[in-house]
Amino acid sequence: MSQTIVVKVGTSSLTQPQTGQLALSTIAKLVETLTHLRSSGHGIVLVTSGAVGVGCARLGLKSRPQTMALKQAVAAVGQGRLMRIYDDFFTSLQQPIAQILLSRRDFIQRSCYVNAYGTFRELLQLGVIPIVNENDTVAVEELKFGDNDTLSALVASLIQADWLFLLTDVDRLYSADPRQVPDAQPITLVNSMEHLAELQIQTGESGSQWGTGGMVTKISAARIATNAGVRTVITEGRYPESIEKILQGEPLGTQFEPQPRTENARKRWIAHSLVPVGKLYLDHGAVAAICQAGKSLLAAGITAIEGEFHASEAVQLCDGSGLEIARGLVNYSSTELQKIRGRKSEDIPMILGYGGAETVVHRDNLVLSN
Ligand SMILES: Nc1ncnc2c1ncn2[C@@H]1O[C@H](COP(=O)(O)OP(=O)(O)O)[C@@H](O)[C@H]1O
Ligand SMILES: N[C@@H](CCC(=O)OP(=O)(O)O)C(=O)O
Predict the structure, then answer these.
(1) Secondary structure letter of residue 295 according to DSSP
(2) Annotated binding site for substrate
(3) Cα atoms in the 13 Å half-sphere on the side-chain side of 283
(4) In this structure, are residues 330 and 362 in contact, taking their beta carbons and an 8 Å threshold?
(5) Which of 4, 146, 251, 313 is spaced 20 to 30 A from 105 at the CA atom?
(6) Ligand nearest to the CA of 172
């Protein structure tokens, strides 16, 4: 059966750890594998890191740039070279590719998000392999994915992929970083995020020399993707042919079971693509109404407001201790909410001098956090 497969490859797999030069044989095997899967009828999207790493190698820089401006300049050098290499390899196998550079803003604005979906769908129908990276050169600090693990999970959720493969420089997830803890235990299957919490995985401070997020971002990517019904696998990038073996049922890498898609596409967009710009603190009654009874949030249940925001922006809904219980789109600005918090819905027109929505966050625009 034809499947939609997103493969994310990290800098640590694409470059030689000692020299930072490209790992050409790995890239060649990856291209062969993806082309073979495509010609077998699967829809393939490649999310690739490496712009910064390749740019550094091109410019003779010996470590990852620290300032935002230098990182963006180096990525601009590396991205073109990276695509040239992919195009050379894929063209040798007559496989057309496309470049898609995305920024967090493209995911926040619903119209851009829906447009991006349309573009992916057309490309896949045309038999093209889209090659995705963060648009590093225009990203701003507050609105960066920061790591391509998260980006790949959001792409997998957007296109409702069946599989997300996170290719890295370790063969799977371990109970702790195997570089630091030699007797760390391998994890082969994660049934649910509750199961993951029970495993008490330690992820250490960071990843490899050139990678960005380490295991932390891969686990959080697995959370986003599995919540969207996407089976997620962490496996070793040096052996891209493992992807086909895993699809045939071999138990390689760490597999995260997909969760039933309980939320619709729009709610998944609210939960994962939007960046919350404020916090609403709720009393016990409001927390119970939202978490247990699936109700909308009313002004009466709000005890405090943090941040400045406009109506229609995304906010976190928190219990009294500040723990996030849900996310949603607000019907009122922070200035209006300061005036109406704790008050009954029927008093709102009198307080504000104009009528507004009965709810502060309608249940159709509200997603429980897990
Ligand atoms: N619990 C863990 N299991 C496996 N690897 C871990 C764990 N914690 C941290 N790591 C580290 O994460 C690294 C991979 O992350 P990263 O360098 O960001 O790779 P990539 O460039 O592929 O995104 C591994 O080299 C490993 O040292
Ligand atoms: N957009 C950046 C990717 C940063 C990133 O996530 O790197 P990695 O941890 O190697 O997947 C680049 O192309 O260098």
Answers:
(1) P
(2) 49, 136, 148
(3) 10
(4) no
(5) 4
(6) 1
Q: How far apart (Å, rounded) are the C-alpha atoms in residues 35 and 194?
A: 36
DSSP string, 296-355: PB-GGGEEEEES---TT-EEEEE-TTS-EEEEEE-SS-HHHHHHHTTS-GGGHHHHHSS-
Q: How far is the CA of 171 from the centre of ligand 1 (A)?
A: 10
Can you give the pLDDT at residue 91? 97
pLDDT of residue 23: 93
Confidence of residue 144 (pLDDT cuts 50, 70, 90): confident
Q: 176 alpha carbon to ligand 1 midpoint, in Å?
A: 10
- Which of 134, 154, 167 maximizes ligand 2 atoms within 8 Å of its Cβ, making it the mutation to test the pocket? 134
DSSP 8-state assignment for residue 369: -
Beta 279-282 vs 302-306: how paired, if at all? antiparallel
Query: Which domains are present in the chain?
Result: 4-267 (3.40.1160.10), 276-368 (2.30.130.10)
The closest ligand to the CA of 12 turns out to be: 1
Token pair in block for residue 34? 């993806």
3-state secondary structure at position 17: coil
How far apart are alpha carbons 22 and 10 in whole angstroms?
Answer: 12
The amino acid at 353 = G
In sequence order, which residues have a C-beta less than 8 Å from that of residue 197 and are 6 or more positions away? none
Cα 166 to averaged position of ligand 1 atoms, centre (Å): 11
Helix or strand or coil: residue 184? coil
CA distances (Å), 132 to each of 112, 113, 156, 212, in order? 16, 14, 11, 17
